[in-house]
């Protein structure tokens, strides 16, 4: 395969990733719709409790007689916003610290890795609870908790990838030829660890959604009556047999969201790091 | 000699990390709203009762004095007394350690035995039409189902049919789904990174068999990130402990946070942190053995 | 003697006491139909089933307090419940909340301030030592001297004296109608004072009582193992040989335990448990009404709520019926400050706020008070169904143009916020009180001079305090009902702590595992009150 063909192929996302992208865009659209109450007021008590889907409440009603449709829509928005905000912060910080620690090594590496280890060795949910409790409940606390819980693993993995890249010939060559540190990190190291960041980012997104659900359940995350997917699934889970529509709606949306983010992440990763993947078996 | 120095440095930095954690947890607990007095004695308590409780557990001293006394006691192996059970914290932690230990060991084993092969397979078949998409979907699904949702479903459905949910098989299986999927995804990424390395290209050119290449060239290099991930699983047991009502360390510590039972939280977090750190040292050591490039930097 | 061969099976079934006076008649047909509900009961144990067997029960929380296992200092129902297996009181309450004999076989009330208790013969602690009048006098004196919440409920006790080996006399400074109801709760239990005074027993660390069970083993937050007390005075009880109480904080774990039968009986928190367990084989779900109720605190030391008109307006806009129907699945009841369900409680539908005209009138009153766009934060804890109640409050007040922001916390942070600072800084908060067994008891907490814990956010009201005192002093009857109604109305217009709806308790049990006895309404939150009667089904 010549170079042009390789670049051409890499520009295209595979069908699976495209499907993921489409699905994600759809969810963002749904979330935007909830801002103008496209499906109705998510907090209003509109009908009898625990009704199966029907006219007036197309996804059924919950245990307070609220229509699930606007609640799921609001939940998508809350969860996507919280988790992606948290993951963006995590990705930016982890990329910075991880690459620096991995490429530079020495005392800087030692310092960064000790701080990361400190956070890392803190039991995740205890850390999240402490952060949320000290900062006071709310969305900011939820974002901060997700960041603190996801940052250690991502930083470590980015660092590990950066260490591997730093030893490669072209990086050494660039260093010998007098390229400055920012140029080496930006041009050579970052693109090569981007795959790790993308994969870990998508993975952190699912961790983030889990943490958000757990925190909301413990009363430290999203405050009622605001809906998030974590809150809805937690509630729906207890009504699994009596009112399955309470979990089916948000559950399907959650799996769709994380799944599409994941396949998109994989696709991006393959595109980010153009290479010929070969079939060995 | 170099190795000895490395170990000494490592031990020192681990001690510093643990010290940092102890300061952090000590400070965080005392910054939390809701004092131990209101929580443990309830709203009906009189100021005299609160003062008596504070004095009994030395909580009437300055935070620095409290920390100093606590640290000195920890040095002698005394982790304090629970304000709730009035029993030594260390004994209870020791009794609960096997529960959490068994759960996480099972999950780590599943991650290594099932997650790594799955990751290698999906990586090798990443080429369009290679069947990697199925693996991607599957592992994507695995990480997208929150543990509390999957756990609730399993607990409910299994018990409905009159089957026991006690024992370790089910909770460990729930924990493993996430572990396997996350490991598979990380492995896939690590393997794809290694595949472009010159020594793999050379091996292919030499005509070595695929499995020989996987074993000798790929796994060694993919091990770092994968091993790093497994340490993370240690923290994942909490929700499973709650759902299956297993008396493990996670539920113990989280309940203690809710009651502001300081000694329990401090000891529990310190224990968890020690386990993590020992695991990390072992992992770095292993990574150093399988991938010399990483070992030099570790 | 494990099997009781007495002619009256029904008496075994019901028996709060075999020979006590004033016991009510056995429910007709109860014994014949096993667990068919009798008046005042959700279920009655089938006395024809053989005794013996091991009973497994799951509850959501262990007793856990800094005061340890000392029953006199216990202040939450979940602790009382566990302690009631080991400790007993002089009197207890029947299904209709009337006082029933327990360690006192009978009592005389020669004048309104004198109570003479005739102790039951043949009562022994589980170590075999016989209970004496000294234990009774010592226990009551110890309680009166203790810094216990229950001290405040016991009333104006002036003197406790031993008359003879089997008689104890209590003298009150003035009449106090809830006295027997207060004596019926676990903090007034009779302790082995001889052992406590000899310091061979630390009641904070160990439980030793006259009750049907004795502690075999306890692991904090994991489980309790009780064995039958072989010295128990009520021969033939407990029916079960042993009782294991498993602590399972997560509702899903308790649902699972009862579905697969590893627990024969479990306390559940979700008001829709019956629907959720509908398809499970052999699982029965019962809702026990309680006298506990939710109330809304409006911090009158906060400028927002200093004007009583603002508080009254909010009270008017609240829809208690909707709270009961929607937030509690129809299983709670609207209530005034005298808990709905207790004899003599006032009718919440006749309260000033209920008849004022709802949200529209509330808007008018707010306008009169010169308040526009009122907005405040409601602090709640995350334990269900409190968040559900809070969200209905939010919707109710929206109708009156008031914006409520809900702030949800863990219980410890909530307690710190509400009780931690004097004067308190929060706007409004939601919680519940145990309603106890006499309609006058809980009204005591509306007097901050007595209650203390709410002095940080509540102004004492002299008139209200006088009314509360009058209601506790008036002997039961039409006049007392009137006095209680006056307290209800005054609390309603005072509107600093606004009573809302009663809090139901849900119980699930295996029809093939146990035949339990359960009251229809419980005053002290004690799900295990009649567990000594429960028959284990084997096979």
Note the main attributes of this structure.
heterotrimer; B: 298 residues; mainly alpha; MetI-like fold; 14 helices; flat; disordered C terminus; C: 539 residues; alpha+beta; D-Maltodextrin-Binding Protein, domain 2; Dipeptide-binding Protein, domain 1; Dipeptide-binding Protein, domain 3; 3 domains; eight-stranded mixed β-sheet; five-stranded mixed β-sheet; 23 strands; 22% strand
Structure description:
The complex is a heterotrimer of chains A (281), B (298) and C (539). With 281 residues, chain A is mainly α. Chain A has helices at residues 3-11, 15-35, 68-104, 106-120, 124-135, 139-166, 169-176, 181-218, 229-238, 245-272. Chain A is elongated. The two termini of chain A are 20 Å apart. The model of chain A is unreliable at 1-9 and 274-281 (pLDDT under 50). With 298 residues, chain B is an all-alpha fold. Chain B has two domains: 2-75, no CATH class; 96-297, MetI-like fold. Chain B has helices at residues 2-31, 36-41, 47-56, 63-75, 89-124, 132-144, 147-160, 169-195, 198-206, 210-232, 237-243, 249-259, 262-290, 292-297. Chain B is flat, with a radius of gyration of 24 Å. The model of chain B is unreliable at 293-298 (pLDDT under 50). By secondary structure, chain C is an alpha+beta fold. Chain C has three domains: 41-66 and 76-85 and 211-290 and 504-536, 3-Layer(aba) Sandwich (D-Maltodextrin-Binding Protein, domain 2), CATH 3.40.190.10; 91-197, Dipeptide-binding Protein, domain 1 (Alpha-Beta Complex); 293-502, Dipeptide-binding Protein, Domain 3 (Dipeptide-binding Protein, domain 3), CATH 3.10.105. Chain C is built from 18 helices and 23 strands. In chain C, the strands form six sheets. Chain C has an eight-stranded mixed beta sheet, covered by helices on one side. Chains A and B meet through helix 4, helix 5, helix 6, helix 8 and helix 9 of A and helix 1, helix 6, helix 7, helix 8 and helix 10 of B.
